[in-house]
Amino acid sequence: MEHRIVFATGNEGKMREVRLIMADLGMEILSMKEAGADPDIVEDGKTFGENAEIKARAVWEQTGGIVMADDSGLVIDYLGGEPGVYSARYMGEDTSYEIKNRALIDRLAGVEGQDRSARFVCNIAAVLPDGQVVHTEETMEGLIAMEPAGDGGFGYDPILYLPEYGKTSAEITIEEKNKISHRGKALEAMKDRLKEIFREETVR
Ligand code: IMP
Fold this sequence. Notes:
Blueprint: E1 4-7, H1 12-22, E2 28-31, H2 48-63, E3 66-76, H3 97-107, E4 117-127, E5 133-144, E6 160-162, E7 167-168, H4 174-180, H5 182-203
Parallel strand pairs: 1-2, 1-3
Antiparallel strand pairs: 3-4, 4-5, 5-6, 6-7
Helix pairs in contact: 1-5, 4-5
Inosinic acid (IMP) binds near residues 70, 154, 156 and 169.
């Protein structure tokens, strides 16, 4: 089996989180840049899973081996799942999250309680050396806050209220968030899947 995993992202913060969580696999974790890959990626999937696989496969075509990628976003039930796979592009890539967050809160004016249910979703795809793909998907459940709160985190964190904490995702610490976040849990689940796959390979 391979001794390294390439993670298809250009985001250094994401790489740090991935390296931390995957450390006990005992494998080298490279960014796509470190692996020398620079593919043109068109994320035109309809689901988080499709987009994660599109990214992982585009890098895998250039590197082979094991390549992982993630795709995530905010899903608001009352808005039929918006912004969903368009989370980064919602109202335009260059629009500030202050404006995007305000706009989403305004679209939920008059909506109360559980009808404000929403979640962050993260799907991780891993393309294996033989081209097969495995996925994990996890969520962080909450409600759209009545007002944005907190300056930790990024993106939509200030408007996802977590009832069990009595705080938004931007008000909890990064350590707390990594433990319960959609991405943290999906990465942990992928680590377990890969361990199983490696175990089956050594038994065979
Ligand atoms: P990507 O998976 O890196 O493409 O991220 C998609 C988008 O979803 C981000 O740009 C954010 O708008 C949103 N998003 C994903 N995860 C989070 C999170 O943990 N907090 C806040 N926003 C998030």
